[in-house]
Amino acid sequence: MSEMTDELEELLADKPDLEEAFETLLDIDAAGPWEFDDVPMDSGTFGEVVSRDIVEKVDGEYRLADPDGVRAVLEGEPSTATPTDHSGSPTLRSVPFDADWQALRPLAVGLVVVFLARVYMYPQVFRPEAITLLGNDPYMYRYLLLELARDNAGLFAVPGGIKVGEPLLVSTLWTITAILGGAKETGFAVLAWYPVGAALISAALVYALSMTLTRDRRVGFATLVLIAVMPVLGYRTALGFGDHHAFDLVWLALTMTAITWLAMRPDRAAWKTGLAIAGVAIGVSGQVLAWNAGGLLLVPIAFYGVAHAAVAVRDDQSVVRALGPVTLGVAIGALLSWVVHLQAGWQSQYMVLTPTLLAGGLLGVLAVAEVGRRLEVSAPVVGAGLLGVGIVSIVVTSVVFPDFTAEAVTELTQLVAKSGQEEIAEVKSIFSTDYGFIAGPFFFFGVSLFFALPYLFWGFWHGVKRSRPAWVAAGTYGLVFFLLGVIRVRFASQLALIAAVFSGLAFVHIYAVVTEGDRPDILAGSRPQSIVPVTWNRPERSTVFALVGVFLLVGGLGAMMTPLRVNLLTYDQSQYDAAMYMDRHADEQDLEYPGSYVFSEWGENRMYNALVSGESRSYGYARANYQDFITSPNGSQWYDRLKDRGYIVTTDIDRGDVPSQALQTQLHRYDGRETSHYRLLYASEDESVKVFSPVAGATITGTAEENRTVSISGEMDAAPVAIPAEWSVRTDAGGQYTVDIPTPGRYRIGEHRVTVNESAVRSGQEISLS
């Protein structure tokens, strides 16, 4: 039987007196489209019938969605009829539930694709001597887990300094680590694997969302495939990218799916509705406690509440029934956030106040809209009332919670202004000119976003026009995150998660057009009645070509861009080898932090410090100083600042018009031999990475003919092999010369041969060749 008949049976079980009304309705429906005034039902009951999809609205009038199914239920017989739309053409066949695997296979296969697209870089993450995470920020969480492991912390522990930030993420990672034994190496492995687990959970939830909207497993499967190859999701949930983004996506996916499900079926069995409300509550609370900017992820709920209420008033449906479950879910989520905040001190009061104010705003929208509907006031008046709710909410909040208002204004200003963060990629727009205005989205979505956007705008319009609040919910999420993505790339992954549903719909639609096959019901103008399956029969060659062609069109560029984007976050073998060398050297020299601190480009600073000393909480010093260091010609001045720190890393990167006197050139190109204070410790095989340490430097003096050039040559003792060096100095008018040697080795200076040892360069020993 179809889901509609299940809904009708459930409704009649609660209200058996409606059987006569439905018998009359069958006769009315047989004569053609009808209006509400034609049926023997009150507005509340009729609204429930519509919300259960037993009746659908077509061009401003109503029809029974499945007359044969209604008749079968009233006669007490199972329905064997294929549901039909009102154009007279049959809808797509229902799935043959001969086995649970038949129903689960699209989900299972799709999740396997997502998994494989996240773990192919395994060798670059799990290396012989260490786990190297992707990117820079994940090493902060590595540091936090290391500290908790050192302290042998209990379950659900969170370091004090992170309670306002991402406490739920750190607590979850540590709790899993503690359950698995609590070793620091276990924590590092948990941190590396967690994004993959988060990707699978969020993908499964979005699959459920797409099925709620379309009841088409082809769309659900296409959604999973596009999630797998969308670049921004690919690298944010890749193995080793243990940042907070993947964790945020889980709570967002849960919230979106639960709200969409409630919008589609607000009057299902109480336990099902309760489960969905719990999903909203947990999702909202999770978003708030997982990230200190999680309140921004709740913005779509506010816009959805207004849009859904307006649609319900227009259609004379109960706003309480339409919006009440979501409002309750948000309120419970706010309560959960407050309980955790007061008991554990997680997040600032500003952050936990956000869902509270959202729940209050939704309640105000619900009340105004419901009163307006019952008083039968005009749509403009109701709209003005809803606008008034927003204005009053802002005014009341600014008066009652001035600190919240000030913080909100600051956050919004930073969101748009981006002052002081220009070099950070995440603050740019997806259409930033740095990427190319049109090409920018290619780096994050391939071209799938351009296919998703028309269906996204259509979906929202369709939801509003045809009274389909689930589409209003999904469309609102997509539109809000598109706007936020235009402002900041930081929200591109949230946009990608919902855009995958619409690009999946585009994929199936285009494939149906190309092959002249069955289009998704929702695009054929009818409400989906039965679940459309994915067929797994051996395909014909033309089918394979069509599938591959459409995939290359919609997802092909993303499939190519994803590994490129991931590779940008992966540390290469030269960087890893340099880090391992510094780690061994620090152990041999018995160096302790900050004596083992690594000074490097800020984007890789946490990685080096994590693998050498474990102190990778911040890259602030490198970010503030490294650029000035490599462009400065004054090595002695910087030596005074860096002499108590252990290592300096230079890389073979394009610095533009860096002068020859700059330290970048003196160190990386000339191995620091003329800098007096920078001892070359290590050079990678391709010399793309070099490691130095600040030393006093040995000073060698000698005499030769006045105003002549004295040549210097030799081999510097650096790992893994000695490096040849050659340069020269001039004698003064008295024939005196001075040579500063920062790196131990064997040198020929004029006619003299001299060996400079480690202690000489570290102590600043003076050696005379007279």
Tertiary shape:
elongated
> Roughly how much helix do the residues carry, as a percent range?
55-70%
**Sheet with the most strands?**
4 strands, mixed
> Approximately what portion of the residues adopt beta-strand conformation?
5-15%
Order of strands side by side in the largest beta sheet? 3-4-6-5
Intertermini distance: 104 Å
Number of domain modules:
4
Number of strand elements: 13
SS-based class: alpha+beta
Counted by DSSP, the helix tally is: 29
| Stretches with pLDDT under 50, minimum 5 residues | 78-100
Which radius of gyration do the C-alpha atoms yield? 33 Å
What is the typical, i.e. mean, pLDDT? 87
Keywords: Membrane, Transmembrane, Transmembrane helix
Protein name: Putative membrane protein
Transmembrane segments: 191-209, 221-239, 245-263, 270-290, 296-313, 325-344, 350-369, 381-401, 435-458, 470-489, 495-514, 544-564
Summarize it.
The chain is α+β, with helices and mostly antiparallel strands and 770 residues long. The protein has four domains: 3-75; 100-548, no CATH class; 572-694; 695-770, Immunoglobulin-like (Sandwich), CATH 2.60.40. Helix content is 58%, strand content 9%.
Describe it.
The protein is α+β, with helices and mostly antiparallel strands. Strand 11 and strand 12 form a beta hairpin. It is 58% helix and 9% strand. It has four domains: 3-75; 100-548, no CATH class; 572-694; 695-770, Sandwich (Immunoglobulin-like), CATH 2.60.40. The protein is elongated, with a radius of gyration of 33 Å. The termini are far apart. The chain crosses the membrane at residues 191-209, 221-239, 245-263, 270-290, 296-313, 325-344, 350-369, 381-401, 435-458, 470-489, 495-514, 544-564. This is Putative membrane protein.
